[in-house]
């Protein structure tokens, strides 16, 4: 048996009228990516694409190339972020084209990013651009649209049920009622049973999902509740302060050592409910934020591979569920510095690490920590 690796997928790589209005004509995620600059010595910025270039997701050739690359390196499917605002969808064209054309022939599921649309990406969360408005009528309308996707033969299923994620389940005013309506409507539409997962993105989301009617959870990485103190609170920060370089070097950002974060994540206790684990190859959202960004520095394909391999082994050994699924955050979050797609620094190294984690599980992260290359 092999674990199914599902990578989160961002569709923010084509212009839309709303982004033209809010951010400027022609804005896409690449606008943020190309503006990023290194903030201190050894800071890896900007993250620039290699093989696929600065692509436009309106092109079927691009979407096919992504799927071909993912399949080659062991990714089972994509989890597309889905933006629904009381019947209005944003960034919908790439997935619409995937659904309507039947191509690429590559498994997928959806994650409803149900937060308000704000200027969060540049650190100005108080500026509301598009608000989520919840209602029973909208719950039914939403499921009526989702049923089209759920009925596609490529749609990923858990225990034979279409898998649907909600990014911020606690934002739903009455999640039990929403779930009840969704399940009723799915049956009425001929979809049958559905498998609902809440994403454990924040502390308020990390409780038994069955309490609000969901079937399971999906771990989000990085887990913000397990980061510990940033490096600025330690020896390096105090040395920089003595030299008068603290603000110059780090700005108002939070920096963590990737290997240390991996160790923290693997030390998390197992929940009493079903939770699909997640790993991330890296994280650095300074491309989006002038202040308050989180940087996981010194990520390498070797450390990522060890983390993923350990998680895959644990998943295969876990008897809690017959479904062996591991999420990866993400396939193409370029402005958050977490992407499996090839970049100019690492090429295919993270993809190769992904493939090796599935094929060769002789070395787990515990073994890696014992090496001389790990943190002192």
TrEMBL record:
InterPro entries reported in the protein's UniProt record: WbsX
UniProt xrefs under CDD domains: Glyco_tran_WbsX
GO molecular function terms noted in the UniProt entry: hydrolase activity
Chaperone among keywords: no
Domain of life assignment: Bacteria
Keyword Hydrolase found: yes
Name of one Pfam family that matches: Glyco_tran_WbsX
Keywords: Hydrolase
Protein name: Glycosyl hydrolase
């Amino acid at each position: 048996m092999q674990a199914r690796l599902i990578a989160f997928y961002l569709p923010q790589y084509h212009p839309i009228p709303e982004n033209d209005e809010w951010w400027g004509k022609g804005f896409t995620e690449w606008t943020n990516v190309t503006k990023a600059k290194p903030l201190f010595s050894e800071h890896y910025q900007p993250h620039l694409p290699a093989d696929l270039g600065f692509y436009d997701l309106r092109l079927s050739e691009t979407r096919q190339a992504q799927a071909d690359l993912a399949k080659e390196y062991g990714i089972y499917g994509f989890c597309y972020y889905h933006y629904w605002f009381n019947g209005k969808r944003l960034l919908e064209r790439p997935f619409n084209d995937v659904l309507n054309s039947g191509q690429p022939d590559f498994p997928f599921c959806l994650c409803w990013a149900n937060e308000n649309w704000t200027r969060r990406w540049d650190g100005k969360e108080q500026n509301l651009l598009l608000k989520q408005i919840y209602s029973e009528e909208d719950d039914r309308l939403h499921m009526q649209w989702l049923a089209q996707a759920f009925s596609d033969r490529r749609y990923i299923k858990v225990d034979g049920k279409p898998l649907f994620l909600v990014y911020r389940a606690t934002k739903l005013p009455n999640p039990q009622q929403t779930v009840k309506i969704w399940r009723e409507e799915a049956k009425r539409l001929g979809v049958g049973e559905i498998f609902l997962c809440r994403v454990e993105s924040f502390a308020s989301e990390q409780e038994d999902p069955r309490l609000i009617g969901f079937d399971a959870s999906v771990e989000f990485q990085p887990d913000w509740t397990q980061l510990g103190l940033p490096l600025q609170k330690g020896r390096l920060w105090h040395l920089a302060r003595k030299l008068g370089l603290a603000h110059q070097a780090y700005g108002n950002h939070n920096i963590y050592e990737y290997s240390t974060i991996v160790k923290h994540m693997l030390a998390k206790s197992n929940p009493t409910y079903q939770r699909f684990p997640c790993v991330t190859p890296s994280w650095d959202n300074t491309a989006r934020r002038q202040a308050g960004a989180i940087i996981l520095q010194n990520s390498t394909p070797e450390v990522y591979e060890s983390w993923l391999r350990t998680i895959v082994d644990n998943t295969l050994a876990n008897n809690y569920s017959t479904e062996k699924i591991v999420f990866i955050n993400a396939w193409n979050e370029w402005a958050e510095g977490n992407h499996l797609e090839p970049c100019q620094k690492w090429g295919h190294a993270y993809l190769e690490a992904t493939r090796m984690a599935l094929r060769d599980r002789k070395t787990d992260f515990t073994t890696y920590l014992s090496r001389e290359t790990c943190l002192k």
